[in-house]
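Two folds, back to back.
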Amino acid sequence: MSSDPNQLSNDDEALILDSIDRFLERDVRPYAHDLEASDTWPADIVDKMKELGLFGATISADYGGLGLSATTYAKIVERVSAVWMSVSGIFNSHLIMAAAVERFGSEEMKLRYLPRFARGDLRGGIALTEPDAGTDLQGIRTRAVRDGDAYVVNGAKTWISNSVEGHLLAVLVKTDSKAEPAHRGMSLLLIEKGEGFRVSRKLQKLGYKGIDSGEIAFEDCRVPAANLIGSEGRGLQQILAGLELGRINVAARGVGIARACLEESVAYSTVRKTFGKPICEHQAIQFKLADMATRLEASRLLVEQAARAYDRGERCDMEAGMAKLFATETAIHNSLEAMRLHGAYGYSKEYNIERYYRDAPLLAIGEGTNELQRIIIARQLVARFQS
């Protein structure tokens, strides 16, 4: 994403958000429950997302995207996640990949890929996690060895979104296994599906269904050297820069789930009666609703603060970490409170509450665990104090 994004007027932003709301009510909400229950990839919804330009949401207009700011993008993600969180993951992973190409790729690479990314003709994500390396990315083992005008890639990745239904991935690899420190030997390759690129299985998950999460094996996979994003040895820094937007996205997802839990809880509390009156009139329920609402608003403000810093081109790992930490913990808190408030109905698959309860914990793990966010926040606090 450009550091000078296209800032929309309030009216233009309202039009975009209104189109997203209409898309969600018409094309997502009526089908989300059944698609999630069967863990079916939502092909028709993806086609509608292509028409809306969501796969180019944060890609510069110079390359055919919408060029939206992170601030507007976060509002879109919140709305989508409040209806079905899995949909937001389909375009978020794709846009992190696109951001890496737009920020660090050559002009030839940008012209070759970004317009097709923006149209959704080519869709993908990022491949970082390995069976023995998640939060500690310097521990990856996937290797890329230069052989003439290509790299030969061998290794495995797991928990990769869009790997089954997508077309390509930005893959973190080791191009120099002897480099010290380890991050100096890590690079980022754009790898299209083909010979040597095998999706070994689709992973089964507690929640976050509909979006595909796969395990990948690279077996003597030849990748053109021109598909190196930026230069060798800069892969970790490049992907961490992209994760700032990714963490803002995950935080916005948390806001969306927290919002859905609150809205459904308020609605339910006005019709469910105990001891002769709606439960919203009981003080114990009022305390729950008040806490849920306050956490939601605080989360939304933290996301907005991080997004605005990102839009100004500022380093915002602390702000994004704070937003990600608080908003995702709020999603978990609100989903549990919503289940308690709904009682047995909250535990039933006929209602959405149990889906929110299953989806929310993922947010505390993805894009860097919340324990890691606490470390990032603390280190930035100390660094800013010492400077």
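---
second:
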Amino acid sequence: MRRKKDDHTLTKAEMEIMNILWDEGKAMSTHAIIAKYPEPHPAYSTIATFMKILTTKEFVSFRKGAEGDKTFYFYPQISRAEYTRKFMKEVKDSFFGGSFKSLISFFAKEEELTDEELQEIISLITDKE
């Protein structure tokens, strides 16, 4: 099956689920994922549909429970850091012509950083230990 271009990015709803999985750091059932949502909890069928989508997009994989347990336990196929790295590279390439300098300049201006914050960023960049 041919994957669509947007198969490598997460929607807001998919990101919510991934954040739960990343934060928990263990395989989780659909019921356990739902329990992590604030009230009102989403419907089981809604989360089950998203789990199928995330599995198809290869962000999530699953394993079956122990013998006699028909539950599926889902876990991330990609780390939060790896996803963030890929996503930010795409943002840099798509919106800033691949220029890291342009990306940083944009955020420095848009975020109205204080001199102290700018110095912290400069320190992070220069102290590559």
